[in-house]
Design brief:
By secondary structure, the chain is an alpha+beta fold. Helices cover 43% and strands 22% of the residues. The structure holds nickel (II) ion. Nickel (II) ion binds next to helix 3.
Amino acid sequence: MDIKKRLFRTLIIVAIGLSIGGLMGLMQIYTQSNAQVVNKGSRAIEGGMAGINLGGPFELVDHTGKTVTQADYADQYKFMYFGFTYCPAICPTELQRMVQVMKALSPEQQEQIEMLFVSVDPARDTVDVMADYVSLFDDNLIGLTGTQEQVDEIMKNYRVFATQVPIDDGSDYTVDHSSFLYFMSPENKPLAVFRMKDSVEYMIEEIQRNMGAVETAL
Ligand code: NI
């Protein structure tokens, strides 16, 4: 598929997602008890974060073409997602959720967080493709790509799974990949790993708690 067409399709998905997001905000008011059940499941993962060795140094290229390492985001919290720009639905949805969470935080909190989208498909996700793609979501979203070796390294350190799956006659492929939103401390320690079923409200609460802005309610 032609890049322009593909990005247009993604834009449509983003627009639909934002409308649904607005509706879900309303629905959330009526489904408080449901949200609590979801939260219990997530706490199990979050509670085990302390002992988990996740993250590490990296060298990649951002969507402006600049070579970056973890040092470029030192002293910042990192809200990260790994995916690929050709992803038909999951990646756009998760990136929208990431932006939605970010927008719900205070300006002071937002200033302390970098939103990073790391490509697991660097062969197709060139700097230009990443630049077009991240601009669909938020001006502050940073797209990161690199050589296959550089991407393999960061995927290994964040325990990201991704594998190419041929489609059609084998001339094209999609990528099956794990889908988690990582919230990392300024010292690059994992604070929370969110799953697709974690609500935006839960992620906001967890991030605020980890940033020390909110007293733990439980
Ligand atoms: Ni995806």
